[in-house]
Design a protein that fits this description.
The protein is mainly beta. Helices cover 8% and strands 40% of the residues.
Length: 409
């Protein structure tokens, strides 16, 4: 079943309004590049996610700070905002400006950053505006958000960050690293960043919300090519709403999104995970989404399509007593390649691993080794409310142990 939920109607089908470009990965997000139903004019009143809304309500608003098209001015503005944690500061960036970062002068919990770590409530509003690390600069990420920080990025692109290197544990989030605050992306993009974990964004703990935004063409050496959501030392919550996760890659698991540990949840609504890739790696899998170690992923009115994994779970891999729930969402046209690769659509691996489909389809996926649709090994898979597994290659669900009830080959 080819669904046309809100993200597809507004974003992908509105080609005449530039919506197709928005959905499939244009490198900038000018206000006119998507229909009015998806985008709002820069600086307009928007509905903040609950966590950010609460922070804004709790803090007194300051007079907006207008930032010239000058990198040092942006650095000074963030420092000023951090110095007044009792106020919620708004920085208004210059239209069509690229704030080019050349020096890793700000070190936080996660190592060097191009901008000061955010430690107070700050909204940064752009207008076809980009913050980018210069390619010849030393390796550093763009932004870090620490405890006490509540960052909102509005109509802004983050690109060029690089946190690859020797110290793998802190090499997280090439674009954005959240160490315990809250982050919201509104009509924004995180693109062309690199890291060991979370090429685009790493949510180490805290809350990250994407709304009408995109995470594209980021790379992780290990996991979470687009986003790594891992509650390593506390709860981590990722919400993806009316957004696109596209063209990211990970050397191991979770080409688009990697979700780790029992204190971690990821929820996608009206969103698409498309053309991401996971390499052969050493442990994990999941070309579009990887869900591991008791973590939880829920998709509603969303689609996982065109992703590839060199191990298993071309679309999604759900492992190690984790929980995956699909509600009116489809997994289609994904591929598991490589020797022994199974579960082109979904792989459900390990005791306690649970997959539930409600009104959802798994179709037109392929794997090197059967099954091509859903591969279940020791876990539990439930098909409910008319969910269907069909037209997968070489089989739909066979062999699986235990078998997937209701799946016909």
């Amino acid at each position: 079943m080819r669904r046309t939920g809100p993200i597809f109607r507004m974003g992908m089908l509105a080609a005449g309004s530039g919506g197709l470009l928005f959905a499939l990965g244009a490198t900038a997000l000018p206000a006119q590049a998507a229909p009015a139903a998806v985008m709002t004019p820069p600086g307009a009143t928007v509905s903040l996610p609950p966590v950010q809304a609460a922070a804004a309500t709790a803090q007194a608003a300051s007079t907006p700070i207008r930032v010239r098209c000058d990198t040092q001015d942006l650095i000074d503005a963030i420092n000023t905002a951090n110095s007044t944690p009792a106020t919620h500061d708004t920085l208004i960036l210059a239209k069509r400006c690229t704030y080019a970062l050349t020096t890793d002068v700000f070190s936080g919990f996660g190592g060097p950053n191009g901008l000061p770590p955010v430690t107070s409530p700050i909204t940064i509003t752009g207008n076809d505006t980009r913050i980018a690390r210069v390619s010849t600069a030393p390796r550093f990420r763009i932004l870090e958000v620490d405890a006490g920080g509540a960052l909102v990025l509005d109509h802004l692109t983050i690109s060029g960050g690089d946190r690859t290197g020797v110290n793998a544990f802190i090499n997280r989030g090439g674009g954005i690293f959240n160490t315990g605050g809250t982050v919201a992306l509104l009509y924004s993009a995180v693109t062309d960043n690199d890291a060991t974990f979370g090429g685009g964004i790493d949510n180490f703990r805290g809350t990250v919300t994407l709304r009408s935004s995109k995470v594209t063409k980021n790379t992780a050496t290990f996991s979470g090519g687009g986003i790594d959501n891992a509650g390593n030392v506390g709860a981590a919550d990722l919400k993806v709403e009316s957004s696109v996760i596209r063209g990211n890659s990970a050397g191991d698991g979770g080409g688009g999104i990697a979700n780790f540990f029992s204190s971690t949840t990821t929820t996608l609504r009206d969103s698409i995970v498309v053309r991401n890739a996971a390499g052969a790696g050493s442990v994990f899998a999941g070309g579009g989404i990887g869900n591991f170690f008791g973590a939880s992923v829920t998709l509603r009115d969303s689609e996982v399509t065109g992703n590839t994994s060199a191990r298993r779970g071309g679309g999604i891999s759900n492992e190690n007593a984790s929980t995956l729930t699909l509600r009116y969402s489809d997994v289609e046209d994904n591929t598991a390649t490589g020797t022994g690769a199974q579960g082109g659509g979904i792989a459900n691996i390990g005791a306690g691993s649970t997959v539930q489909l409600f009104g959802s389809d798994v179709e037109d996926n392929a794997a090197t080794v059967a099954p091509g649709g859903i591969f279940n090994s020791v876990g539990t898979v439930t098909l409910a409310r008319g969910s269907d597994v069909r037209d997968n290659r070489p089989t739909n669900c066979t062999p699986s142990a235990p078998p997937v009830a209701g799946c016909h080959n």
